[in-house]
Design goal:
Distance between the termini: 81 Å
Shape: elongated
Helix content: over 70%
Largest sheet: none
Oligomer: single chain
Radius of gyration: 34 Å
Length: about 140
Amino acid sequence: MFKQVKSALIWFYLFKFRKKISLILALLLLVVFAQSIYADVVSYLQISGKIDLLIYVLIAKWALILASLFSAIRIFLSFFKKSQLSAQDEVPVPLKQEAQVVSEKEQWLKNKAHLRSRAEKLIAEKSAQKAKEKRQ
C-alpha cells in the first residue's frame, strides 16, 4: 500500500511540474552535451597545434555548464517558493480604478433597468399586436 501511495504522489508531482522538470532535464542534458563537444574541440585544437585557444574553450565550457546548473537550481527552488506562497493567505490587491470617460449613451445603458435586443422588442410588439387582435 505504501508503494502505491508513493507512486501516486510521484506521478502527481511529475504531472503537476512537468514543464519545469522537462526544462531542468534539458539543461542537464545541455551540460552533458557541452562536455562531449568540449572533448572534441580540445582534441582538434591539440592536433592542429592551437594550444593557446584552449583557455577560451575551457572558459566557454564552464560558463555554459555553470549557467545551466544555476538555472536548473533556480527552477528547482521555485517549486518550494510557489508552495509557500499558496500556503499563505493571499490578500487580493485592489486594482486602481482610473477615471473613465463615459458617454451619455453608455451612462444611460448602464442605468437602464432592463436591456432588450431588437429581436426581443419585435417579439414583444408582435405579441402585443396579436393580443390586441384577439380582443377585437
